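queue> pop job 88
queue> type: inverse folding (structure -> sequence)
queue> payload:
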């Protein structure tokens, strides 16, 4: 069963690959975020992913404000474990779960560029942050156990930690990170390991390592991946959009980003850069998978560039066999950047692959890597 998630732009939207305050087309107002949430719910997406950081609105407050305006779609709420105690995080997620009727998913974000961490006063080194995250998750799960939980570790000491009620269901814990420390935390503690789009072999290699760590603990790991998408009626039109984006990138912006990426402490960011190494002739890293966004922008830099009818088939073809979640954001004319109204938004579902939408089992433990599950068809008008 593959679930499809969408990125909620709590930092606002722009047509520019490198937006600044002057180029934000849509501020992340409550009305705008509500419009996106309702549209994605109608489309059939499973959840909305929020970012976390100083460049966006607080994920807990933004998503909580959308609970009453939606009925089915879930919220994948991102937060930094260094900024909360684990018992407080357990309480917040438990409350969210009850207020939303079971629609809370949590995404624990340990890593970031050092400048971003410094804004929050986080000065711990990488190894310490991830080791601390492992204890954080253990205490948070303990507080959800329904029994008073006492724990004494290297970073946390709690006595009789609990929440008012056991959340129903227990919020699944999502987690990403490409370093060896992050993979160890994932394999030992979390429910679903997230990664940014890479080549199929690279994705499979990472998933194999994390799955092996989880197996040593008697656990089964689930996996998810994030891509941008460019979908157009024809492949030629989709590639024309990519070419236009590339042509809009100033050489000095590409050079400046390259210097930043070469100095980054983020393994995931470094891996995104190494997909192309700054070479404009090596941006198609897999058929119809383009790494051009990563020339100038941090975070996920890969795009599935494909005709509309084949977009999800391509997404499925680049994932490793264990994939369970696809999180999508789009570049240019996406559901975020629509100025006001959706003329026609729909998801065509192949129930043989995504049978859960029809109340079926849908594929068992080994989803079909090449089967078309969802076709995203977007049309917009502007006023």
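queue> result:
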């Amino acid at each position: 069963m593959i679930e499809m998630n969408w990125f909620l732009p709590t930092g606002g939207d722009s047509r520019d690959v490198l937006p600044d305050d002057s180029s934000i087309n849509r501020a992340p107002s409550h009305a705008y975020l509500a419009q996106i949430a309702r549209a994605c719910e109608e489309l059939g997406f499973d959840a909305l992913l929020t970012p976390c950081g100083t460049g966006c609105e607080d994920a807990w407050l933004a998503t909580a404000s959308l609970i009453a305006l939606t009925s089915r779609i879930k919220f994948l709420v991102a937060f930094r474990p260094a900024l909360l105690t684990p018992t407080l995080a357990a309480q917040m997620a438990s409350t969210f779960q009850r207020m939303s009727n079971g629609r809370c998913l949590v995404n624990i974000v340990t890593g970031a560029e050092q400048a971003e961490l410094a804004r929050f006063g986080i000065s711990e080194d990488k190894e310490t942050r991830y080791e601390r995250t492992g204890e954080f998750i253990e205490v948070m799960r303990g507080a959800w156990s329904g029994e008073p939980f006492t724990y004494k570790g290297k970073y946390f000491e709690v006595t009789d930690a609990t929440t008012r009620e056991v959340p129903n269901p227990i919020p699944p814990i999502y987690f990403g990170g490409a370093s060896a420390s992050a993979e160890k935390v994932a394999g030992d503690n979390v429910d679903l390991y997230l990664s940014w789009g890479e080549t199929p072999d690279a994705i499979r290699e990472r998933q194999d390592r994390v799955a092996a760590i989880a197996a040593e603990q008697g656990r089964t790991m689930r996996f998810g991946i994030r891509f941008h998408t460019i979908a157009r009626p024809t492949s030629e039109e989709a590639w024309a959009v990519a070419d236009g984006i590339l042509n809009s990138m100033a050489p000095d912006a590409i050079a400046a980003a390259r210097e930043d990426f070469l100095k980054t402490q983020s393994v995931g960011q470094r891996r995104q850069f190494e997909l192309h190494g700054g070479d404009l002739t090596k941006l198609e890293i897999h058929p119809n998978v383009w790494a051009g966004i990563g020339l100038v922008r941090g975070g996920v830099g890969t795009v599935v560039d494909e005709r509309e009818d084949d977009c999800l088939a391509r997404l499925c073809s680049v994932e490793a066999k264990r994939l369970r979640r696809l999180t999508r954001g789009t570049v240019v004319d996406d559901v975020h950047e629509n100025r006001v109204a959706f003329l026609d938004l729909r998801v065509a579902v192949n129930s043989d692959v995504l049978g859960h939408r029809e109340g079926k089992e849908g594929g068992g433990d080994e989803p079909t890597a090449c089967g078309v599950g969802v076709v995203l068809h977007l049309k917009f008008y502007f006023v």
